[in-house]
Request: fold
Amino acid sequence: MTRRREAELAALFETASELAGMRDTDAVLRSIVRRARTLLGTDVSYLSMNDPAGTYMRVTDGSFSPLFQKVRLGLGEGLGGLVAQTARPYATSDYFADARFNHTNPIDSAVHDEGLTAILGVPMKLDSKVIGVLYAADRTSRQFPAEQVALLQSLADHAAIAIDTASLFATIQSHNEAMKRAEEAHDRLTDLVLRGGSSAEVAAAVGELLGGTVEVLDVVPPNAVRANGRAVLIRDEWVCAVLAGSELLGGIALSGRADLTDADRRLFERSAAVTALLLLLRRTVAEAENKVRGELITDILDGRDATGLVARARRVGVELSDPHVVLVADGNLSGATHYASVHRGLAGSRGRDVVLALPSASTGVAREVAKALDATVGACGPVAGPVAIAAAYEEARRCLKALRQLGREKDAATMDDLGFVGVLLGDRADVSGYVRSVLGPVLDYDTERGTELVHTLEVYFRCGANLSRAKAELHLHVNTVTQRLDRVTSLLGDWQSPDRVLEVQLALRLLRLQG
Reply:
């Protein structure tokens, strides 16, 4: 699973790099369709482009039917027409048996002639406008799981930007002076994409090209958002929203230019699209890397091959041979994942808890994590190596359980911090079981008869095992106290021997801490 995700991520990067460097629209379309077929491993892939009448076939890969290669779909007709109309992905494992689609004779004849059964189609969108549909299809029945739908949609998103960029470049070529600057802008922005540049670098490059100052915005004026990725003049600066579909990622603002030619305005708007692409790529990389890190910590705890785990960890910048503190927390997984990523560690889920392995020589990091995640944190370490990390997880987990039982919410501790309770829980995770193993007969006797033997024992120890002081605090005759203690002896045996008396006191203390 991890290797497949890494391969898909690498393929998306390769695709983005290839598309970013293309200036010929036909070459862009052929590359998109070829990549779609390769990434999803289907028999056929194809792409249709929209016009006012519907969507028409533009490029195919793996197709042999001339009828299919020339088919046209009206809006709402067939699977592709529904995708183009609704701007939503659709998938079917058996197209002809699927009643969701408006089956027409020309479309069904073309699909039948090609021999297709399973079809997945996703929209290619620029801003809120659907410019085409990208498909992957098989000649036999198959399911398209959510991750494959998301993968094809990511490719379609990259493709839409690449198509628009190629189209923009073709338009600007007719103007000699504008073409030269557009070529320089294209090369610089392409270089930024290939190098994985930041949005700030895009802003600096565009500001230099346009002879002004470009700033990246976190908050975008409402009228710029409503412009749907088009530049608007607000007072003395141009503002353009940075959008990924309908998601607002931020904005860019250009100052120092009172007016913009059409070519310069399109360049400014294109820089917003490039900024969106870079932000999406960074988010995709972060999400994929976090999945890899989460699966890695799971495999470490499951005791997988240590050599392989060390090599996998190095690929995400984690050196397992260095000292790590292992933390088990009841906090939010996304927050823990972000914290681990920033601090070059690992994070994942285990049951209802999250597990972190952070490079550190001190367990003091546990309190920082508890504060950052607003969580209760059990800690162990520092330790080095996958085997030691797995063992440390078990102790950190027991420590978290002890903190919960002691009512120390939003706190952090190691077993050493918990003193005698930590020593006890280091060997026995079941506090209630331990209490019953020591005091069970006395607890049952009190419950059945309504007596107060447990309370008598607590007062007796609190008074330093002094009968006179105990009877005074209990407001009882000394003989009554003695009779109660004799009853405890008959239930527990020789509980006043040095070893047993310590166990009884520990059990009483834990019982009290449990409330």
